[in-house]
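Q: Predict the assembly, please.
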Amino acid sequence: MINHAIRLGADVEAALQSGAPVVALESTIISHGLPRPANFTVAKEIEATVRQAGAVPATIGMIAGEIVVGLSEEEIRHLAERDGVIKLSVRDLAPAAATRADGATTVAATSAIAVRAGIRVFATGGLGGVHRDAVSTFDESADLTALSRLPIAIVCAGVKSILDVHATLERLETLGVGVVGYGTRRFPGFYLTDAGFDLDWSADDPGAVAEIIRAARAHDVHQGALVVANPLPVEEQLDPALHDRVLAEGLAGLEREGVTGKDVTPYLLAHFHTATEGKSLDVNVRIILRNADLAARIAAAI
Ligand code: PSU
Ligand code: MN
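A: Predicted assembly structure:
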């Protein structure tokens, strides 16, 4: 019989035991969201950023069927460089474990594992959400339903701009997921600073976010996640005209090549990275590093 316990990295275990701040990090962004060889370098930079800001990074993924919270550098390299690493949402974890697969966890799976391990702050790039053609395809990321039932704060630059952002915000409301703008009352648009929608709540520093998290814990009434939406400064965003053109091409490519389901997001991100000649990659990396830094400061403030 296989032992299906979750393995904690040594640093993460020590930090959780002593109550030191820990930030969860996902691995799908490494295996499926960023191109090689930058993905491995960026994964290491994300961890270094979390450490510099005073927290312990816990990159989460699956190695040979074992869920690991706090992957080692060699394990991260494995997920970054190997072919056949599976994109794992929550529902995939058990079959992947039973067949001893190597897998990278999405926002949904990473948050579920993080909460199980006792980690309450998570940094990523952009959330999954409602896809633009969801009315006919029903394609809505499992990130949304996972966040509706998980007490975790997730620092992101909004939802990916490849999605129907308005519909995603409506679903977040329905599902009871909190959304607070970091230093803004406008919802960020991932590659773009502003997705064009107002927010009801904002917080201006890590302490203010930590206070919201403490209130939620004390009340023990709201069980869903808190999305901390951290926009890129305008001068660092992708050129909006370039963004709109590349996105339109990418969406047409999906149709032409018959891409559906879990391949849609990786396809569109890869299209951006090639069609912008790496400009979107630079922006994506900036987004993730800024979110990692903020998440660490929030974890330290709790
Ligand atoms: N954000 C990024 N890059 C990514 C993703 C998010 O900047 O690769 C990944 C996350 O793991 C997220 C997933 O959970 O895309 C959503 O995929 P889908 O739309 O198939 O649910
Ligand atoms: Mn989907």
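The CA atoms of residues 16 and 54 lie 14 Å apart. Residues 26, 28-29, 32-33, 106-108, 124-126, 128, 141-143, 160, 262, 265, 269, 284 surround pseudouridine-5'-monophosphate (ligand 1) (CB under 6 Å).
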